[in-house]
Amino acid sequence: MKSFKLVTLIVLGAIGLKSQAQHAAAISLPLAGNAYSSLHQDSEKTLSSNGIVNWTNPKEYFTAYLRVSKPGVLVVSISDKPVIEGQSTLEFSINNQPKKVVFDEKKNFDGKIGEWIINDTGYVSITIKGISKSAGRFPSIKTLSISGTAAEAKMAYVQNNEGNFFHWGRRGPSVHLNYQQPENVNAEWYYNEVTVPKGQDILGSYFMACGFGEGYFGMQANSPTERHILFSVRSPFNTDDPKSIPVSHKIKMLKKGDGVHTGEFGNEGAGGQSYLNYMWKAGNTYKFLLHGVPGKDSLTTYTAYFFTPETDKWQLIASFTRPQTKTYLKCFHSFLENFSPVHGDLSRKVLFDNQWICDDKGTWTELKSARFTTDNTGAKSYRMDYQGGVDNGAFYLKTGGFFNDYTTAGKIFNRTSKGKKPEIDFSKLP
Fold it and tell me: N- to C-terminal Cα distance for the chain?
């Protein structure tokens, strides 16, 4: 009898431990950092720090994402009490398998949504659609609770808003190519060619071609009617507020090209900024040329030029001086980022090719090796949709859209030499 009781206690204990393990595996998926509206530009009205709110349009729907590293059962529920008006029906769907749930303000909601079989690792999308409502609004939902055997292993998602990660996480990871450069070279010129494949010119993208130790130079997709060629130089004064920069540390503009806007920037460092509104086209290749040379009194001058196939000529963007600085160009890199959180569910890709530097004696050197890195969003595994490498002989970067095949940060890639040294008459540049 004692033996039977002992076995029974062991079995019950094992069941209890299993139940606790399943309970411990449940995570809270905040929609504020992991969901997107089908309307994108208008989603700031319906996606807030409290998740889905003020949802009235039945044509609008939401999709939340998380990445699983173990196949199995995924159980979705709502642990926070949703705000319900009247009676409404929502449809929750994973892998085109919908489950309808009725919400009624006169009845207690038990939190159950449903469970799905996940057959593979990678990103899982949970779509939330409004089917019907008797009042003005669909339910407001702050978080989804995720559990089940598929949730027992590590998952990638934006966990909380510490460090403003609802913003950064919804933007998606920034990705970089850090070009390996020869030592002891006084690089005055830095050249790069950029091609955004057709269909990859997603709003909010910054395809940055010529990054250097003190700034960056590239092209942006700002709106359906506006695209910028952007050149910025950071102040040596460490701040995110350009107004706090002392006069002795301010970036000064020497000259600018026709139609170029100049001013200051902040939030991610601060300094001098210039941009040309130019409607560049996906599929075309654009050339970027940067000049950097130290002068007297600890001043370094940086000048940016942009070449378009549409005009077949080099255009001046701007020239700035940076105080407290005496250096040639260094820390060559390119990056791809999305600066629009509402478009972080869309994938974008860019090709960088034929990178060269030219020293103070006029000798050109080709840059053929690059190290891939990602930002803190990727490093924390909040998002793992980042990629880089070589595509048809050119370096490429890709981010956003919740694709599954990611590139390990720190990996070094080598492209085949093009041997196409830039043919530029520096004396004829504007």
Answer: 97
Q: What's the rounded Cα separation, in Å, for the pair 370 and 387?
A: 13
- For 82-186, strand residue ranges (E) read 87-94, 97-104, 112-118, 122-133, 143-147, 155-156, 175-179
> Are 24-157 and 172-428 equal in CATH topology?
yes
Q: What is the pTM of this model?
A: 0.91
Q: Which residues contact 98 (CB under 8 A, 6 or more apart)?
A: 91, 92
Determine contact, residues 205/348, Cβ cutoff 8 Å. yes
> Is pLDDT above 80 for 104?
yes
Task: Give the architecture-level CATH label for domain 172-428.
Answer: Sandwich (2.60)
Fold of 24-157: Jelly Rolls (2.60.120)
> Rounded mean pLDDT of 316-323?
96
Give the residue among 262, 276, 271 at the shortest CA–CA distance from 316. Answer: 276
| Residue at token pair 């359906």 | 224
Q: Quick one: 403 exposed, middle or buried, by C-beta within 10 A (0-12, 13-18, 19+)?
A: middle
Above 80 in pLDDT, residue 5? no
